[in-house]
Amino acid sequence: MHRIARSVSAAVLAVLLLCTATLVLADSGKPGERYSRVPAGADGIGKRYMGRDIAGVMGWQGAAWLEREEREREERTDLLVTALQLKPGMVVADIGAGTGYLARRMAPAVMPGGKVLAVDVQPEMVALLRGTVRQSGLTQIQPLLGAEDDVRLPPSSVDLAIMVDVYHELAFPYEVLGSIVRALKPGAQLVFVEYRAEDPQVPIKALHKMSEVQIKREAAAHALVWDRTVGTLPWQHLVVFRKRN
Fold first, then answer.
1. Percent of the chain having pLDDT more than 90?
2. CA distance 195 to 193
3. Are 142 and 116 in contact (CB under 8 A)?
4. What DSSP character marks residue 244?
5. What digits encode the pLDDT tens for the residues 80-110?
6. Distance (Å, rounded) from C-alpha 225 to C-alpha 245?
7. Is 244 within 8 Å of 225 (Cβ atoms)?
8. How far is 193 from 204, CA to CA, in rounded Å?
9. 83, 80, 86, 158: which is closest to 118 by C-alpha?
10. pLDDT digits over 5-36, tens only?
11. Residues 184 and 153 sit within 8 Å (Cβ to Cβ)
12. CA–CA dist 26, 4 (Å, integer)
């Protein structure tokens, strides 16, 4: 009986040591050790980061949803743009710009002299973006193709970067966020806009929402300082960080 008890204790200890080692690897920050594999559900990619299952990206085939008539009423993009406090001459990066819905609404606020760098990772979406930009006549919007792990923007070139309902779908959130931070000027702002996970009344699938706590947790892995959280949007968090000087 004692031998059995010792064997069970040894087995439990081995499991605990394995779990501890796994946690150390997950928090080590080394390439290849930041992410863990999980069963891929209907809405996920089978990959977890900082305790969060990464959602699958919305393909360019769903672009019409980004331009839906009810979006303004549901998300109050007018309040979002007001909260950003944009000024003439600013360089703004719209990461995961999609069809350019937000880029077109920010562009007038940075004129004269400013520009909006509209970055997306899907070539088909960038092609759609170019079309909407041509139709709008807003030449200060520059459609750009980014990579899955890098936004490909010059260092210290951006006054404000924003991701609207995008960050939770990034396959490489640590790497992409790092590339955005590098692109920010010292003291520049990074804005996360994500559907509120804390609110069950927000009619969005769970993996496509994020809590404010989780947003802050993941931002803390980079040279970012929380600045403010704006609570004026009906469904979304608007969380603003600044790059450390």
1. 76
2. 7
3. yes
4. -
5. 999 999 999 999 999 999 999 999 999 999 9
6. 10
7. yes
8. 14
9. 158
10. 333 344 433 333 333 333 333 333 455 689 99
11. no
12. 33
Tokens linked to 213: 């706590």
Distance of alpha carbon 175 from alpha carbon 211, whole angstroms: 21
- Contact by Cβ (8 Å): 46, 37: yes
User: Which residues does 194 contact at the CB level (< 8 Å), separation at least 6?
Assistant: 165, 167, 168, 209, 210, 215, 236, 237, 239
Q: Tokens at residue 55, please?
A: 């959602």
In the numeric block, which tokens belong to residue 83?
């909260």
Q: Which amino acid is at 12?
A: V
Neighbours of 41 (CB within 10 A): 13
Q: What is the spatial distance between Cα 125 and Cα 99, in angstroms, rounded to a whole number?
A: 6
* Fold for the domain defined by 38-243: Rossmann fold (3.40.50)
SS3 59: coil
